[in-house]
Amino acid sequence: MQINTRKSKILIADDSATLRQRICEFIKLEGFETIQASNGQEALDMAFTHKPDLILLDVVMPKVNGIEVCKQLKNSGDFQQTPILMLTVKTSAYDVSEAFKAGANDYIRKPFGAEELLLRIRVHLQTKFLVTELERLNNIKNDFIGMASHDIRTPLTNILGLTIYLKNLLKNKSEDIDFALNNIETEGDRIIQMVDTMLDLSVIQSGKFTLVKQATLLPSFLDEALKRASRLGESKQIKFKLQNSSKKEEIFIDPYRAHQVMDNLISNAIKYSPENTTVKIIVNDCEKQLEISVIDQGIGISQENIDKIFAPFFRDNTIETYEIKGVGLGLAIVKKIIDEYNGSVSIQNLADGGTQISFKIPV
Q: Where in the chain is the domain with CATH 1.10.287?
């Protein structure tokens, strides 16, 4: 697995200006950014200010020695995953042991060659990247398990409960049989939609996903989107208002994926809108791009979560939205599809209430 570590930021802390400059020269040739510190205290200050991706740290330095700098950085909690490579002329087993006890990730004896240092830097940066990625994937897995235990178990429990209820109704030939059957169908559909959404995201994230573009009439596309929206909003009596200001008659898109984007945005708007409200769909030309916005009259997104809203399995679980059902994949799928179009997607809370999600794609 090839990992691009270029543009990583490296802090070089050594009291020898000549050595620092030499290291900087060949590190920069490899595309790394560099920061320099001439003593231990300066190294601490620079590390906390610039948050480097890797630190080259001399053991013997004025003010604060390298071992103590390493201890303080690792103990702070901010640099647990930051590789620290100790540079020193000391070669005894005791010195090496002290460096590793302090939390160092590697120990490089002076003098060293440029090739050796660069190899070690790349290995540690790649390891850091992989550890970070594993943590991210593990968090997604944990989020999924938490979601599955609630959002998938709930409709299954309802189905089982309704089945028992239905058996009793059949015994008594009750007129409520249709009600029970409709609810079983609804809960079953919810499970199928969840599974389909998860499989869809899996395909999109696999790297095997490509758009199949074709010439499409914009008015026809919007009419179909509006019909689908009306069906989705039926249960909450949501109305839809289309404002099409585009001068384009024909656009070049993947109709299936474009409708998937619209369905997910509209479903999201319906989910967070009160009953008997209106969702607006606004279409504009934006130079060579088409911009479509979906605006609801819901409570909006909490400001601290607005940047996370397109992450897989993320849900804005405030007190007001906690009971709203969903997997947290719809907007993640929207983002992936729009990225494939080389387009952009944005979200904002409106001053008079509600949320606007807009996307732009070249057509």
A: 141-205
Helix (H) or strand (E) holding 13: strand 9-13
Residue 313 CA, distance from chain mean position:
9
Name the helix (H) or strand (E) containing 67.
Answer: helix 66-76
Within the chain, which residue ranges are assigned CATH 3.40.50.2300?
9-112
* pLDDT band at residue 92 using 50, 70 and 90 as cut-offs: confident
Assigned fold of 214-362: Heat Shock Protein 90 (3.30.565)
Q: What is the DSSP string of 218-243?
A: HHHHHHHHHHHHHHHHGGGT-EEEEE
- Tell me the per-residue pLDDT of 161-219, one tens digit each, with 9 for 90 and over: 777 777 777 776 666 777 777 777 767 766 776 676 666 666 666 666 788 899 999 99
Neighbours of 210 (CB within 10 A): 9
Query: pTM for the full model?
Result: 0.52
Assigned architecture for domain 9-112:
3-Layer(aba) Sandwich (3.40)
- CATH number listed for the domain at residues 141-205: 1.10.287
DSSP bridge partners of 106: 85
3-class SS shares of the chain: helix, strand, coil, % to 5 = 50, 20, 30
